[in-house]
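Researcher: Please translate sequence to structure tokens.
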Amino acid sequence: MVMAGGTGGHVFPGLAVAHHLMDQGWQVRWLGTADRMEADLVPKNGIEIDFIRISGLRGKGIKAQLLAPVRIFNAWRQARAIMKRFQPDVVLGMGGYVSGPGGLAAWSLGSRWSSTSKTALPA
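Model: Translation complete:
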């Protein structure tokens, strides 16, 4: 399962990895959000996609910030239910808000998972 969403900087590298895995015979599913670019691009690339509800907080005000823990918990529950249903062999987070609750869901289920960050600075 590939988790990526929001911007092309997350989605396009995720698509490249997904296509490589499919070329190797892997069945790939995607975890994303329904209101961002992955909702359109991923199915057009022949990949099944499941959605969770998660978004950023920037510019959304104090109410959204106060409700953030509840929203993150709900997104984790959604991701966990999807992963329990499909039981992916490996979960790969390629970035975007979906990768946080998705990564926690994979970890909580004991799934093999990895996360990449293209914005990290070398130590």
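Researcher: Any highlights?
Model: The chain has a mean pLDDT of 89.
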